[in-house]
Design a protein that fits this description.
about 425 residues; alpha/beta; Rossmann fold; 8-stranded antiparallel beta sheet
């Protein structure tokens, strides 16, 4: 339950003016790998990288021996699962061969490629009313009751955040366990000077967004409201925790797993995931389940393929973990966006995602479209509901959101709830603490 988690919690919002640019793969370079992406026809993956979960009785000597046999080098280990390793293997060997090698060893529980997911944004001309989405979900009616609480921490796993942005800086999460700039891991979590999030893609303490996608999603969730600047987020007062897990359009599964474990361990109430792809990862699902065990909701973009997730799964939105909320994209007229994925059994609800105006990198603003923009509306709703009553368990929050939707024809038979987010109804249906 949220009130049992640490009190230092925050949320991120992202956006900017004319924002959609395609980035070359060379922008994806990480500090520890070359960051190149390939495909097997079903999903993309990072060349020369595998994730290996060894059995609990595997000795360090055995792990070293196996890595030596294949030429593998340990990149990192995972705080959420000490038996899980991020390993660099020779590109000439091939990821598939490396996965097969580890999988066939008795001391290995599971081996996977490091899947490359993508951010879920679709280019669109900024022609709609700039914040029609907040009117559509009746946010002003909800704000009559509650505008947020700085105890609410919302984690944004994305391309980082422009934490200097005038509309985002007031709601930037701060790690109170760190003394910033002293070069010491004051809170003992294994990361030095993680004062306001972390860059898990490049493994440093600077989660600055140079792409814009993360700043846009962060702003939708939690841009500072009623401050006389720019826009308002779904929740005006909150803490946004920027966790950078990719750059350009590619998201690293290894970075995502680390970020999810960091988020719940550092007190996040909800995690936004405006990214995804076709590749199934048991290790990613395990991380989401660990977050669920800590009472943390995981809100995921349903995807922008225009396909049925019931028959063609899209991850992480399709994981059947109880804490997952999968979100489709709707337009200003309550149509389902043509690019949005759907699923009567696997996509929970819709939220505005077409032509959404929000914050962006370099202090700007932009209009962007996609299920990337739909998901943070729901993440912001989670933050607002928990701000009103922080003692509710996560499954109750999820039920309140799904039972408070506006039923709309475009989502009937296309989503579990058959409707689009209504923030006012959700607050009305939330019991007072």
């Amino acid at each position: 339950m949220p009130h049992l988690l640490p009190s230092n919690r925050r949320l991120v919002v992202q956006g900017n003016f004319f924002a959609v640019v395609f980035f070359s793969l060379w922008l994806l370079c990480a500090a520890v790998t070359n960051g190149q992406v390939s495909t097997n026809g079903e999903y993309d993956y990072f060349l020369g990288e595998v994730l290996v979960k060894f059995k609990s009785d595997a000795s360090e000597a055995k792990i070293s021996q196996l890595n030596g046999t294949i030429g593998g080098e340990i990149i990192d280990r995972f705080s959420g699962d000490p038996n899980l390793y991020h390993i660099k293997v020779p590109e000439t060997l091939g990821v598939g061969t490396a996965v097969s090698f580890y999988t066939n060893e008795d001391s290995v529980a599971l081996a996977e490629p490091n899947i490359a997911y993508s951010t879920q944004v679709v280019p669109n001309d900024p022609s709609f009313s700039r914040q029609y989405a907040l009117q559509k979900i009746q946010a002003p009616g909800a704000w009559d009751t509650v505008v947020g609480d700085y105890g609410a921490v919302l984690a944004d796993t994305d391309t980082g955040m422009d934490y200097n942005h005038a509309d985002l800086a007031p709601n930037l999460w701060t790690n109170t366990g760190e003394i910033c700039g002293n070069g010491i891991d004051d809170d003992g979590n294994g990361l030095v000077d993680d004062c306001f999030g972390w860059d898990f893609f490049n493994n440093n303490n600077n989660p600055m967004d140079t792409v814009g996608h993360g700043s846009h999603t962060a702003g939708i969730m939690g841009a500072a409201g009623n401050n006389g600047i720019g826009i308002a987020g779904v929740v005006w007062n909150a803490q946004v925790m920027p966790l950078k897990i990719g750059s350009g359009t590619s998201i690293s599964n290894a970075a995502a797993i680390k970020a999810i474990d960091y988020a719940w361990s550092m007190g996040a109430w909800a995690i936004n995931a405006s990214w995804g792809g076709r590749g199934f990862s048991q290790l990613l699902k395990d991380a989401i389940d660990r977050a669920g065990s800590a009472g943390v909701l995981f809100i995921a973009a349903a995807g922008n393929n225009g396909t049925n997730n019931d028959t063609t799964p899209f991850y992480p939105a399709n994981y059947n973990s109880p804490n997952v909320i999968s979100v489709a994209s709707t337009t200003s007229t309550d149509a389902r966006a043509s690019s949005s994925n759907y699923g009567a059994r696997t996509v929970h609800l819709g939220a505005p995602g077409a032509a959404v105006f929000s914050t962006y990198r370099s202090g700007g603003y932009a209009t962007m479209s996609g299920t990337s923009m739909a998901a943070p509306h729901v993440t912001g709703a989670v933050g607002l509901i928990w701000s009103y009553n922080p003692f509710l368990p996560s499954d109750t929050i999820k039920s309140i959101i799904l039972n408070s939707v506006d039923s709309i024809p475009s989502l009937q038979g296309r989503t579990v709830s058959g409707g689009r987010l209504n923030l006012k109804k959700a607050i009305q249906n939330t019991p007072a603490p």
